[in-house]
Amino acid sequence: MSAHPRPPAPMRPISRVFRARQITADIARDGAAACDDRGPWWSTIEAAHAAATSPEAAEQAAAPAVALCSTCPEGGPDGRCALRASLDSYDGLAAGEAWVDGRPRSVAGRPRRRGGSWKRAS
After folding, report:
1. What DSSP designation does 42 have?
2. pLDDT digits over 38-82, tens only?
3. What share of the chain is helix, strand, coil (3-state, %, to 5)?
4. How far lies 75's CA from each of 45, 79, 121, in Å?
5. Is there a contact between 93 and 65 (Cβ–Cβ < 8 Å)?
6. How far apart are CA 100 and CA 92, in angstroms?
7. Among 97, 85, 80, 75, which Cα is nearest to 16's?
8. Phi, psi (5° rounding) for residue 69?
9. Residue 37: phi, psi to the nearest 5?
10. Can you tell me the distance from the alpha carbon of 91 to that of 51, in angstroms, rounded to the nearest whole number?
11. Exposed, middle or buried: residue 45 (CB in 10 Å: 0-12, 13-18, 19+)?
12. What's the pTM value of the predicted model, to 2 decimals?
């Protein structure tokens, strides 16, 4: 028998999904998010952004959400909202940016749909 005890087995890393859920629960519990209790409004803004047919239209559609995010303590690239969007591979608007597969994009940069492109206005 050795004089030194064996080190403990390494812990299994927390999954991205579990961590995203944990952050979402923390944000909801704290109640500090500017978008708290605005689910239907937020969904409408995201749908308008996703349906935009040009970068200008996408920027205009996202403007209300971006303005709200600019006042939020959870917003910004280092905030919990951005962390949650990244971990959750989020598609939509969060932390003042558009997110595609958990990666931040300019709200005017490209549509929300993965692999999508801007439609030409008829």
Report:
1. H
2. 999 999 999 999 999 999 999 999 999 999 999 999 988 889 999
3. 40, 10, 50
4. 17, 5, 33
5. yes
6. 7
7. 85
8. -60, -35
9. 65, 25
10. 13
11. buried
12. 0.76
